[in-house]
UniProtKB/TrEMBL annotation:
CDD domains tied to this protein: metallo-hydrolase-like_MBL-fold
Source organism superkingdom: Bacteria
Protein name in UniProt: MBL fold metallo-hydrolase
PANTHER family: ACYL-COENZYME A THIOESTERASE MBLAC2 (PTHR42951:SF4), METALLO-BETA-LACTAMASE DOMAIN-CONTAINING (PTHR42951)
SUPFAM superfamilies recorded: Metallo-hydrolase/oxidoreductase
Span of domain Metallo-beta-lactamase: 26-217
Source organism of this protein record: Streptomyces argenteolus
Pfam family, one: Lactamase_B
Length: 240
């Protein structure tokens, strides 16, 4: 599939996969396009951002997003989901219940980080929780021989971290905020530091040495970067 990713401001990664670094919080959104289906990994921080991602996906591919995978339930990664009516939404097990009970907390967190009250309220009022919950691994067939793996590798950065592996040459691993390149990994109140290094071990096991690792914030990195960040986190939190 010949997709002009760069013309839309996206970065081509391989095997029908591209990503965009969104403004303000530098969060990653990624598209994986098969012959029959299109997966979007994370939906942006506002409904407006979600609508823009939907428009870009349709412009790039000529068809709509059919599946959404949410990396973790933080505002800058999930609040655009309502813009994708009809898409099947996936999250790590527990994500749905958390989002259903924590709209107020998400809104407050978004406003605390600089989002307008109006944008935060509109997005959380329309909040969409995942219908499909991934407890281990889930293979999603996008058609044309492209099968992507959704892997519940957390907890770590949050209590509900979902990674996506796209096979090919190179393999692409969408990491969410388990890996960050543009700053030190953020450990908020829902982080589980004791499990974070082992979550990165699982990412490395899934992707291998030659994979591209796509962080939740920042530039694409390699296995050596992920391993170094794993060791830094282990030292920071006093775990092995």
């Amino acid at each position: 599939m010949d997709v002009a990713w760069e013309e839309f401001g996206w970065e081509r990664l391989g095997n029908g996969t591209g990503r965009r670094r969104l403004p303000v919080w530098d969060a990653t959104a990624a598209l994986v396009a098969g012959e029959d289906g299109v997966l979007l990994y994370d939906t942006g921080s506002t409904l407006r951002e979600g609508v823009e991602l939907r428009s870009q996906a349709e412009g790039l591919l000529g068809r709509r997003v059919t599946h959404i995978a949410l990396s973790h339930p933080h505002f800058d990664h999930v609040l655009g989901t309502a813009a994708f009516a009809g898409a099947e939404v996936y999250g790590a097990v527990g994500t749905a219940a958390l989002l259903e009970r924590s709209a107020g907390e998400l809104r407050a967190d978004a406003v605390r980080h600089g989002m307008s009250e109006a944008d935060a309220t509109a997005a959380t009022d329309a909040l969409v929780a995942p219908r499909h919950q991934v407890s281990g691994e889930w293979t999603l067939d996008l058609g044309g021989g492209l099968q992507v793996l959704l892997a519940n590798v957390g907890p770590g950065h949050s209590g509900h971290d979902l990674a996506v592996l796209v096979p090919g040459s190179p393999v692409v691993v969408l990491c969410g905020d388990l890996v960050e390149e543009s700053g030190e990994p953020q450990a908020g109140p829902d982080a589980v530091p004791s499990h974070w290094p082992s979550a990165l071990d699982r990412l490395l096991e899934l992707g291998g040495e030659e994979a591209l690792y796509v962080p939740g914030h920042g530039a694409v990195v390699d296995a050596a970067f992920v391993r170094a960040q794993r060791d830094q986190l282990a030292a920071r939190f006093g775990v092995s």
